[in-house]
Amino acid sequence: MLSNSGLFGGWNFLRTVAVVVAASSLLLVASDSAPERVPSYVSWSQETLAAASAGDAFRGMLLAKRCEHCHGAEGFSATGSTPNLAGMDKLAVWKQLEDFRSHKRMSRVMEPIAESLSPRDVSDVVAYCSKLPVFTDPQDNRSFPGSQPNPVRAGIASHLVSFGDGERGIPPCQACHGPVAYRPGVPSLMTQNSEYVLDQLTAFANRTRTNDINMPMRTISSLLTEDERQALAEYYGSGLGLQPGSSR
Amino acid sequence: MNWRRLRTFWLTVLVLCLIPATRYYQIDEPLLRYLKGTREVDPLSLHLLGEFVENNLGTEQNADGSVTVRMIAQQYLFVPHCILVPAGVPVHLRITSADAVHALAFSGTEYNVKVLPGTISATRLEFSQPGEYKTVCREFCGAGHYAMRSELKVVPREQFPVLRAGGRGNCAVQ
After folding, report:
1. Quick check: A238 pLDDT over 60?
2. CB distance B148–A171 less than 8 Å?
3. Nearest-angstrom CA–CA distance, A171 and A144
4. pLDDT at residue B137, rounded to an integer
5. Measured distance CA(B146)–CA(B63) in Å, rounded
6. Closest chain A residue to B99 measured between Cα atoms?
């Protein structure tokens, strides 16, 4: 029963609430002049995780024949600027394909390819890539284990990978990119090409790649100096990040 | 002095010692709301909608002269990484977490804000003197916790950029 007594009782109160709600919604509309900039439409909800990890690897193998030309028959590419896909986390590759599809990550090659894949195709391909074995065979036509960097640069990189730099607020790479810990959608870098890693670090720092959720990589890449980015790329690209038993 | 009086004395001393500690370890309002089950934002889709979208982060000038700072704490970064605020005006801090429990502390001050996923921690701060403060995470949040630091720059009020409506102040724009 609604009585007309007091501040919080009755129709007067309801009317006040209605007026306040209407006014605040108007204010919201008015203040939202700048368009929201969304880095990626992916959010790691339970449904997303289920969809991204429910792929059929055998069907993915047939679909992945298209990827072989650039990414290599075994998921290790011959050119350094093309990423290796072997053993990559399902969620990481899935997110990149989704971002290519929604044009949140730019690539003249990958955008049309990702657009041509159905959601099921994407999860199947991703399941296949994650099952490719990670071992490094120098006899192969692979660019992966690059030449060893000089010890000084390797030392700089190794320190950043294991400890980061607390003074500047740079977290250690291995806290998210493995092998210490992983976060959903974060790729392992242990078998990645040096040139590709450097390209992406530079792209994040220059804001030409902006699809990281809540901008961790844009922030960290801008904090790193150019030398450090180069050193990190060489460290991962020469296989120094790969320790026995550390692959996923 | 009999044992009862001795006990009362030492208990009083103990309680008095604990009082300053409560200023740093606040069992505060956001935690109580979190424990009650209130979820104000979805920590997984902060970047998609709501007040913590990318272009809404940072310092915003309010009409009454105060500023509002919106931040995200995540493993292992505070975003934006460097914040610029004017000295001597109220700073309304609104911060939420994208993953684990964090605590935002400005070293050299007594401010310590607990940050929980799904809950917006809203606090009013004020910095009277210009200066630079290191921002640290004071709640263990994972493997990179110790490197989770960022910066807060307090500049004189007249140096703080006059922002147009919807503009955001950060350290790059002085």
Report:
1. yes
2. yes
3. 26
4. 92
5. 37
6. A183
